Amino acid sequence: MKKKAEAKHTPTPWKATMVLVSGRGKQSIFRPWITTTDGDRGICEIFVSGNDGRNITSEDRANAAFIVRAVNAHDELLEAVKFLLSTSNTTAAQDEEIRDLIAKAEYPHA
Hints:
The protein is α+β, with helices and mostly antiparallel strands and 110 residues long. It is built from two helices and three strands, in the order E-E-E-H-H.
């Protein structure tokens, strides 16, 4: 049986943005979304913790921004850690811990 190819995520960079989900004018309801930087593709909507989803909190916005920063920095940080592992003078135990962290960052855990 042929092994199924692993799906790839939407290319980075991503951005946090506000998307109009319903209404007009003062009745407009916006939600924080994570999208591609050109805005052509929605990645995910951020859960809004305010009452009935109408009041977006500063924490909601901060969560969206945090996810975007983490995703956009992921590949560069991973490469930097691999480089440091190959050039640093660390103990075998430290090397193993670093390799475990690299594996956690590289492979999805369902």
